[in-house]
Amino acid sequence: MALEMHSFIIKRDGPKLGWDSKSEQLMDEIGDHVQFLVSIDNIRPDVITKAVETLPDLRHLSFEFSASRSTAQADAFLEVATRFGEMVAGLNVAFANNECADTLGDALRATPNMRCLIFNYPSFSSRFVVNKVFRDTLPQMKQLEKFSLYHSRMEDSASDVLKHLRWLHGLKELTLVKCGLLPSDGSRLGKLIEENPELTEIDLSYNKLEDDGLLYVFRVLRKSKVVKARLLYNGGTHECLRALLDGLLGNYITTKLDMIGNIIDQRGIQYLVEFVSGNHTLQELLLSLRDISSEGIEAFFTGLRNNRGLRFIHVCDGGITVANAKKYTGLLYGNTTLCYISCDDGVIKNPGYVEIDE
């Protein structure tokens, strides 16, 4: 009886180590169902070739590998891309470096139908090397839906990659984490979000956008389809909060916002109160609050009382503790939507079920 599945994963302990009678028999059993093949850690061009020949319904290939020890995996990927470039839909490569830059660039130029492209911990040493990989490749990937650059060791690499991403208009997920993005990159980021109307998730965490850079991102949220926005530790303050909240007050799409690490003090409480009073779409809100007065906490909880969107709120950096939050949870009575208020020292469950003590 044939297995009912639409994907097949070739791992270290699987058929990729050799095409023996057992693995060929397995391919015969699932051949009528497999449409997507994923090769992890050890690309074998001969095995991939055999899989393409054996699986009649196979449409897409995806690869994950590390380039930390040698260029062998990049070379193997180039060989596969040269043969089956039209079928390659995904690449997740870790520790890409100067030695494999030319090879990766050549391989990516042969994969115009790429949908998911992920680079983890790349260590390209110069803009020249970055351009080898991305300049002539990203503009041709018209079907690219997910792009991720995580923890780049070259401080300004994300800025150069942004220049090449401007040709794309079909992105759905964008991750640029710990890439050294600066305030000067804000306008290009805002334009990128604006020109990719199907973008639903963005993660720009652990950069250096600061208030000036974050402003550009916040201004385009109102008209975007972004559902989840992660903007952790970008050096933002209450100064950018006004633009953020203005953008989200007119946004009926975004359901999760993570702003942890961007410190909001007493000066930003007024904006926060206006937001939670007027936005009923956001379901998860994660914030860093510091030096908030008792009057500020009371105003925040008062604003939350009529909010019917938020289900989870996490507050860190000591702005609100469980002890002082419990003094005001009575103000939330009747708000049965809010399930959790999480602080550094604990969690308050179903705070809206506690009536004010007269």
Entry summary:
The chain has 358 residues and is α/β, with parallel strands linked by helices.
Task: Describe the structure in your own words.
- The chain is of the alpha/beta class and about 350 residues long.
- The chain has helices at about 20-30, 45-55, 70-85, 100-110, 125-135, 155-165, 185-195, 210-220, 240-250, 270-280, 295-305, 320-325, and strands at about 5-10, 35-40, 60-65, 90-95, 115-120, 145-150, 175, 200-205, 230, 255-265, 285-290, 310-315, 340-345, 345-350.
- A 14-stranded mixed beta sheet has the order 1-2-3-4-5-6-7-8-9-10-11-12-13-14, covered by helices on one side.
- Helix 3 (about 70-85) packs parallel to helix 4, helix 4 runs parallel beside helix 5 (about 125-135) and helix 8 runs parallel beside helix 9.
- Residues about 1-5 and about 15-20 have low confidence and may be disordered.
The main pleated sheet reads as:
14 strands, mixed
The tally of beta strands, per DSSP, is 14
Proportion of helical residues: 25-40%
Strand order of the largest sheet: 1-2-3-4-5-6-7-8-9-10-11-12-13-14
Question: Roughly what is the average pLDDT, rounded to an integer?
Answer: 86
Radius of gyration: 24 Å
Helix count from the secondary structure assignment: 12
Question: What structural category arises from helix and sheet content?
Answer: alpha/beta
Low-confidence stretches: 1-5, 13-22
What is the strand content? Answer: 15-25%
Order of helices and strands: EHEHEHEHEHEHEHEHEHEHEHEHEE
The general outline is elongated
First CA to last CA: what distance? Answer: 69 Å
